[in-house]
Amino acid sequence: MNLVIGTPNFRVGDLGDAGLPACRIEGLLAGLARSIHFYFVFLSCNIAGVKPFELVDQILSPGGTAMKLMRRGAEFLILADGGVLMSSRVHGSEEELATLACQRARTLNRPSVLIGGLGMGFTLRATLDLLSPDATVVVAELVPAVVEWNHGALGPLAGHPMKDKRVRVEIGDVGDSLRSGVGQFDAVLLDVDNGPAAFTASINAALYDDSGIADVRTALRREGVLAVWAAREDRNFEQRLRDGGFELQVRRVRSHLKKGGARHAVFVGRKL
């Protein structure tokens, strides 16, 4: 029996019939699960008697994704092709990504950290709070509008981290930042799409294949740390990290941390 999800024209069984590999099907389902979770967040905030979300801005990303910034009071959503990509109400696991990635970097003099994916600024804020005043934090963001949103309406959510003098923003593919930063970083944090299951831009999938992992390893300094946020665990990605020269731990975190919420995974690898 095929399960109907979202639309009568889409069936999970069709993915296998189309010849997609199992790992890709799992990735698509992970993205679907995340979208469904945020959809109910969105739906619950638009019930009768509750002020609806208003459109702040809408753009087309470099990858062709239709993105919208929505606002209701002090709450924000970012939509990607109609699905909720992120919510300002749910960011505990993004902050935990920074905590896990920077355990070593926070003890160093003049640490250098790369964050792939700006989002709503919560990972950046948590990273800055952990690091010393002489740190450098490079943020690579593919979508220029996301940077503009963080300078503007989204800025107050995480205490205006973009105003911190330690921050340098590079607009473009984080892969380019990795390849141009050989031996530059003590930690690399990737919070791009759904992790290994790319959600908004197929270009991001290259971050998680063997060549992308090799680029990260080359960009890291000795005993540097890679931390990757993901919507779910991925055994194939775990093996690629180990094969790529990383000592790996997989940490399971909740979107609201101790308060519960959806279960996410953070892959933490130390360069061997």
Protein model, in words:
This protein is of the alpha/beta class and 272 residues long. The protein folds into two domains: 12-87, no CATH class; 92-271, Rossmann fold (3-Layer(aba) Sandwich), CATH 3.40.50.150. The chain is 30% helix and 28% strand. It is built from eight helices and eleven strands. The strands form two sheets. The protein has a seven-stranded mixed sheet with strand order 7-6-5-8-9-11-10, sandwiched between helices. A four-stranded antiparallel sheet has the order 1-2-3-4. Helix 5 (144-151) links the parallel strand 6 and strand 7. Helix 3 (92-101) runs parallel beside helix 4. The longest helix has 23 residues, at 22-44. Mean pLDDT is 84; it is low at 1-18.
Summarize the structure.
The protein has 272 residues and is of the alpha/beta class.
pLDDT averaged over residues? 84
- What form results from the Cα inertia axes? globular
Largest sheet, in brief, is: 7 strands, mixed
Strand order of the largest sheet: 7-6-5-8-9-11-10
The CATH superfamily of the largest domain bears the name Vaccinia Virus protein VP39
Distance between the termini: 46 Å
Q: Indicate the CATH class of the largest domain.
A: Alpha Beta
Structural class: alpha/beta
Secondary structure tally, helices: 8
